[in-house]
Amino acid sequence: MWKEDVIDLKLSRFFEQSARVLLSLLIIAILAAILAGVLYTFYDLRLIMETDFHGAFRTILVDVLTVLSIVEVLRTALAYFTEGRVKVTYIIDTVIVTVLTEVMAFWYRDMEWQELAMVISLVLSLALVRIIAVRFSPRSHRAEL
Fold this sequence. Notes:
The chain is mainly α. The chain is built from 6 helices and no strands. The protein has helices at 2-44, 47-50, 53-83, 88-106, 113-135, 138-144. It is flat, with a radius of gyration of 21 Å.
């Protein structure tokens, strides 16, 4: 029985170290994606002179919001790296930023009212889940004990 515990402990350590190495590579990839997004946003600044303002600003706005959603993914990865667990609030924040990026893109095109109602209900649902995740987080339960 003692040997089985030692093997389980070694396997757990191996898994934990492997996950940390892979997560470190993922964080480097996310940072590279953020850098590429920022550079691409600066490259899109040329559109201000070449096209109409609305089209150029829409493109730049979507670029910026996309980079911000990638930053939220980075926050999620860093939280897992430091705390050893995924924070639901960070994931919900990422989804909210991504959905709001799409909503900003909707401003510049015609939409049916059903599509708009679906997007509004999605954002409200995500906000409700975010509130519930904060209210019932494990950290708040530990503080009560």
